[in-house]
Amino acid sequence: MNYFRVIAHPEGRLELAPVPTQELSELVKQAVRQVLLEYQDQKGATEEELLKLPQVAALLGVSKQTIYEWKRQGKLPAHKIGRRVFFKKSEVVAALSAQSRQPLRSRVNRRG
């Protein structure tokens, strides 16, 4: 099969010129790479890493029960997919950075 490119001359004349197979192959590879890069950029912008409860507990260095409590108190937003609960990594990191301003862990009144 032969492939051609159209060459437009300044005087308005069009010319068909053959495209070597190797050159066509490189053009297709470049186009595919470009589309894949654009897709990955879009995917990265929209896709969020989801963490399971044990991963969040390990990341924050607290027990699973503490994560349940923070979820119940609204200190750590959770998202249900089906019957499972997930946490967005960005929200966990935001809660962790907020901890420096206002601790996530409630102070327990100690009797002395």
UniProtKB/TrEMBL annotation:
Gene3D superfamilies: Winged helix-like DNA-binding domain superfamily/Winged helix DNA-binding domain
One GO MF term: DNA binding
InterPro entries, per database record: DNA-bd_dom_put_sf, HTH_17, SinI_DNA-bd, WH-like_DNA-bd_sf
Classification via SUPFAM superfamilies: Putative DNA-binding domain
Signal peptide: none
Alphabetical list of Pfam families matching this protein: HTH_17 (PF12728)
Domain Helix-turn-helix, first and last residues per copy: 50-99
Designated name of the protein: DNA binding domain-containing protein, excisionase family
Organism field: Catalinimonas alkaloidigena
Classification lineage: Bacteria, Pseudomonadati, Bacteroidota, Cytophagia, Cytophagales
